[in-house]
Amino acid sequence: MYHKILVAMALDHGVSPQTLAIARALRAPGGEIIALHVLEEPPGSSNAELWEALQEEIHDRARDLMKAKMVGVNDATAKLVRGHIHTTIVEYAEKNGIDCIVMGSHKPGLTDYLIGSTAARVVRHAPCAVHVHRTS
């Protein structure tokens, strides 16, 4: 059983209910669940002015999607942060005393075996246990 669980939420995927259910099953009595979505930073070569112009709209849309996914979820705290997805998840876990990360993962393709998926990167670098829910 874990006391502080981070659920990595991908707002463009449908695995959130399953990962939240897994977190609930793993949570110790009185434990905390944090649902985290990372807004991916744009590539360094992108136009900074364009990013600044769209940043507020992107954040607002992500916040609205997060709210929609969290409707009826009263036992988790939603957090929205910016950064590179796998790095930010690991750093958030380190800085916030997370003792378990729960995240979804798609069925790996050839490129995932060569460069690694987000879930694989989090598993390799996380300071705590990681439970990965594989979807087909």
Descriptive overview:
Residues 1-132 form the UspA domain. Belongs to the universal stress protein A family. Pfam families: Usp (PF00582). This is Universal stress protein F. The protein is 43% helix and 29% strand. The protein has a single domain (2-134), classed as HUPs (Rossmann fold, 3-Layer(aba) Sandwich). The longest helix has 22 residues, at 48-69. With 136 residues, the chain is an alpha/beta fold. The mean pLDDT is 86. Helix 3 packs parallel to helix 5. The chain is globular and about 45 Å long. The protein is built from five helices and five strands, in the order E-H-E-H-E-H-E-H-H-E.
CATH homologous superfamily annotation: HUPs
- Read across the widest sheet, the strand sequence of neighbours is 3-2-1-4-5
Envelope shape: globular
Distance between the ends? 27 Å
The third-level CATH topology is Rossmann fold
CATH architectural grouping: 3-Layer(aba) Sandwich
Structural class: alpha/beta
CATH class term:
Alpha Beta
Number of DSSP-assigned strands: 5
Which percent range describes the beta-strand content?
A: 25-35%
Outline the low-pLDDT stretches.
none
Run of helices and strands = EHEHEHEHHE
Proportion in helices? 40-55%
- The helix count comes to 5
Q: pLDDT average, as an integer? A: 86
Oligomer category = single chain
Main sheet record: 5 strands, parallel
Pfam families: Usp
Protein name: Universal stress protein F
Family: Belongs to the universal stress protein A family.
Domain UspA: 1-132
